[in-house]
Specification:
By secondary structure, the chain is α/β, with parallel strands linked by helices. It folds into three domains: 139 residues, Response regulator (Rossmann fold, 3-Layer(aba) Sandwich); 154 residues, Reverse transcriptase/Diguanylate cyclase domain (Alpha-Beta Plaits, 2-Layer Sandwich), CATH 3.30.70; 211 residues, EAL domain (TIM Barrel, Alpha-Beta Barrel). 49% of the residues lie in helices and 21% in strands. The chain contains 22 helices and 22 strands. The strands form four sheets. It has an eight-stranded mixed beta barrel, surrounded by six helices. Helix 3 links the parallel strand 3 and strand 4. The longest helix has 30 residues. The radius of gyration is 29 Å and the shape is globular. The relative contact order is 0.06.
Length: 567
């Protein structure tokens, strides 16, 4: 069966065009074509029809092939563009290729036509696939997949823009953070799928309640946000609060079951409560928890709400002591090659064995360390412990890569590469055995400085991995420049593959994109044999998650590796 092909020919000679068409038909193509020889006819053809490939002569009486190429580029079209000419010289052909043409063929050598067409069509499809992958990643970087609303990253960008406009135009702005009350009970009673339906309905109703330029976002879980970038006056915030509360009064219908939803809303105002996005966000969060704590429905930020808890203050002092006395523990979670079943690396994860509170996980103390400047000594403490442990494993005949997570402060510290080099020498570890895991958001705080730090470490031989890929900024431009060997797909996409087909598409897109950029891919959050099998079928390189092993102390991990080797 002949293959359909839509061909646009820019050629003043009808006879030459017919020779070209005959050659394509002999090559097995069923053609739909048009011949044009003026700029006006070309533009009309591009406007009224979609084409698979364009062939052009180089020189025509009133029009040239390079003019045709410029017209195509001005329209932003990425189509295979091939010169077929009897007059084009090698120097002109090279210049045309630099302009963006894909190939050139001499009219006396049309035997090259079919191989050229097949190659260009294949490469065009690959370019379209890469573009679709990039668009999917951009969507997931800036929008919540469940509701389609802006996510935290995009909201933060909108907030920064609103504050700049507010300062320039001298008008207030407001941020509302909203947490649905007793949503956990709804999930437990009706199940997560119905809980997800409720979240989608809440997001939709909030959008319909507000008007341009107000923005509704979902920050995750049952937390939403509303940005009011152009308040006429700060006092008008009460009108918006009443509108939101009234919108939630009408019960939501989930599969015929009426569900009543209430929310706790925290409000912070610009410039009254702060003049930068971080402060506005933090104070809206404080106000939201004040509203939840007092069951008042909403609260506008006040300094009296923003008191550090005694436990938090105590933990800060105790964390400093724990770091100085090397009291933090390091657990390790293995990464396994999906094809060979071999352990290719371990990720180091800090734990704090507190004398009163027991084992404290990173989500409770890493934020404290970052806000107090303790993250730098904490990172070095963990790095030293990991490299010393690697030496023991290496001497026992185990050879894999050890990974350590970095904070934004590490990537802004010009002394950090020197500290790493000193530790590698002291512990006698080859630099390529150390992998530093970074997130996209840590890079984007100051991309120039981060790139400088990464480049210095990379030149030493240290490896890099992008952690939680897809949950942050996802700048493909930076990804192509970064000296990273590995991309780790955020576990939220991997764990939801079984019930969310869009997540499956995203996972496949990330794998294909990474491989096109010559990067390895690790899937986080692998918790079942089905996930393992699907990722292996998608071509993913490695996996990490509870299906393989939870994070373990070094001694337990050593025993686990001996058992895993028998699988």
């Amino acid at each position: 069966m002949n293959k359909p092909l839509r061909v646009l020919i820019v050629e003043d000679s009808e006879a030459d065009a017919l020779l070209l068409l005959d050659e394509l038909r002999h090559g097995g193509y069923e053609l739909m074509y048009e011949r044009v020889d003026t700029a006006e006819a070309l533009k009309a053809a591009l406007d009224c029809q979609t084409w698979d490939i364009i062939f052009t002569d180089h020189s025509m009486p009133d029009f040239s092939g390079t003019d045709a190429l410029r017209a195509l580029q001005e329209k932003g079209l990425d189509l295979p563009f091939v010169f077929v000419s009897g007059t084009i010289g090698e120097d002109i052909a090279v210049a045309a290729m630099k302009m963006g043409a894909h190939d050139y063929i001499l009219k006396g050598n049309l035997k090259r036509l079919i191989p050229t067409v097949e190659r260009e069509l294949r490469e065009a499809e690959e370019r379209r696939e890469r573009k679709r992958a990039e668009e999917a990643i951009q969507r997931m970087a800036y929008h919540d997949l469940l509701t389609g609303l802006p996510n935290r990253t995009l909201l933060y960008d909108y907030l920064r823009q609103a504050l700049l406009a507010g300062k320039r135009e001298n008008h207030p702005a407001a941020l509302l953070l909203m947490d649905l009350d007793r949503f956990k009970e709804i999930n437990n009673t009706l199940g997560h799928p119905r809980g997800d339906l409720l979240l989608k309905q809440v997001g939709s109703r909030l959008q319909k309640t507000l008007f341009e330029p107000d923005i509704v976002a979902r920050l995750g879980g049952d937390e939403f946000a509303i940005l009011l970038p152009k308040l006429a006056a700060a006092e008008h915030i009460s009108v918006v609060i009443r509108k939101v509360q009234k919108a939630l009064e009408t019960p939501f219908a989930i599969e015929g079951v009426p569900i009543t939803v209430e929310a706790s809303i925290g409000i912070s105002l610009y410039p009254e409560h702060g003049e930068n996005a971080d402060v506005i966000f933090q104070r809206a969060d404080v106000a939201m928890y004040a509203a939840k704590r007092t069951s008042s429905g909403y609260a506008i930020y006040g300094p009296e709400q923003d008191q550090h808890s005694p436990r938090r203050l105590a933990l800060i002092g105790e964390l400093r002591h724990a770091i100085e006395q090397n009291q933090l523990l390091v657990y390790y979670q293995p990464k396994v090659n999906l094809k060979t079943n071999r352990v290719i690396g371990v990720e180091a994860l800090a734990r704090w064995q507190h004398p009163q509170h027991g084992l404290i996980f990173p989500n409770e103390f890493i934020g404290l360390a970052e806000s107090t400047g303790l993250i730098k000594p904490l990172t070095m403490n963990v790095l030293k412990a990991v490299l010393q442990q690697y030496n023991k494993w290496h001497n026992a005949g185990l050879n894999f890569i050890v990974s350590v997570n970095l904070s934004v402060q590490n990537l802004q510290d010009p002394k950090f590469p020197d500290h790493v080099a000193d530790l590698l020498r002291t512990c006698d570890v080859a630099p390529d055995r150390l992998e530093l895991e970074i997130t996209e958001s840590t890079i984007m705080v100051d991309p120039t400085r981060a790139m400088e730090i990464l480049t210095r470490l990379s030149s030493m031989g240290v490896r890099f991995s992008i952690d939680d890929f897809g949950a942050g900024y996802s700048s493909l431009a930076y990804l192509k420049q970064l000296p990273v060997q590995e991309i780790k797909i955020d576990k939220s996409f991997v764990m939801d593959m079984e019930k969310n087909e869009e997540n499956t598409v995203i996972v496949i897109s990330i794998i294909n994109l990474a491989h096109n950029l010559d990067r390895k891919v690790v899937a986080e959050g692998v918790e079942s044999q089905e996930m393992w099998d699907r990722l292996a079928a998608f071509g993913c390189d490695a996996a990490q998650g509870y299906y393989i092993s939870k994070p373990l102390p070094a001694a337990e991990l050593t025993r686990w590796m001996q058992e895993w080797a028998w699988r």
